[in-house]
TrEMBL record:
PANTHER family: PHOSPHATIDYLGLYCEROPHOSPHATASE A (PTHR36305). The keyword Lyase does not apply. The keyword Transmembrane helix applies. Its EC number is 3.1.3.27. One of its GO terms (biological process) is lipid metabolic process. This is Phosphatidylglycerophosphatase A. InterPro entries: PgpA, PgpA-like_sf, YutG/PgpA. Keywords: Hydrolase, Membrane, Transmembrane, Transmembrane helix. It comes from hydrothermal vent metagenome.
C-alpha cells in the first residue's frame, strides 16, 4: 500500500468490506481522543486543519487515477469529521459536572457524527451531491462533524439539567 492510500484510508481502516465509513470513524475516534487528552485542543485543531488541506489535494489526485468520485475506501473525511465533533463536544464536556459525562459524550459524539454523515440533511447533502473532487468529499463530512458536535453539546447540556 502506498503512502497516499495509507493516508486516504486512515491506515487501511477504509478497506473494510463492511461499513468502511463507520470503521474509519471507529479507527479515528481513539486517535483523536488521545491527541485531545495528551496534546490539547489546539494540536487536534491544527492536525485536523492540516489533514483537511492535504486530503483535498490527495483526493483530487486519487480521483484522477481511479476515475471515480468519493470512493468508499476514502475515510480521511470521516477522520476530520469525527475530530471536529469531538472538539466541539469536548468544549461542552469540560463545563459539565455529572457522572460519566466524558464517556457519554464520546458515545453520543460517535452516534451524532454518523447520524449526520449518513443522513446528510440540508446543506450537508447538497455538498455531497453537487460539489465534486476533494472539496466535496471533505466538505460534507466537515459540516456533519460540526452538526454532530453541536447536537452532542445540546444533548449533554440537556442531560446536565435532568441528572
Amino acid at each position: 500500500m502506498n503512502l497516499q492510500k495509507l493516508f486516504l484510508t486512515f491506515f487501511g481502516s477504509g478497506l473494510s468490506p463492511k461499513a468502511p465509513g463507520t470503521m474509519g470513524t471507529l479507527a479515528s475516534l481513539p486517535v483523536g481522543l488521545l491527541i485531545l487528552e495528551f496534546m490539547g485542543m489546539e494540536t487536534l485543531f491544527m492536525l485536523t486543519f492540516a489533514i483537511t488541506i492535504i486530503a483535498v489535494f490527495e483526493i483530487n489526485k486519487y480521483e484522477v487515477i481511479t476515475g471515480e468520485h468519493d470512493q468508499k475506501e476514502i475515510v480521511i473525511d470521516e477522520t476530520v469529521g469525527i475530530w471536529l465533533t469531538l472538539m466541539i463536544a469536548y468544549s461542552t464536556i469540560i463545563t459539565l459536572n455529572y457522572d460519566f459525562v466524558y464517556e457519554i459524550g464520546i458515545v453520543i459524539s460517535f452516534a451524532s457524527f454518523r447520524l449526520f454523515d449518513i443522513w446528510k440533511p440540508s446543506t450537508i447533502g447538497w455538498i455531497d451531491r453537487e460539489v465534486k473532487g476533494g472539496l466535496g468529499v471533505m466538505g460534507d463530512d466537515i459540516l456533519a462533524g460540526v452538526a454532530g458536535g453541536l447536537f452532542t453539546s445540546l444533548i449533554l447540556m440537556g442531560l446536565d439539567k435532568v441528572l
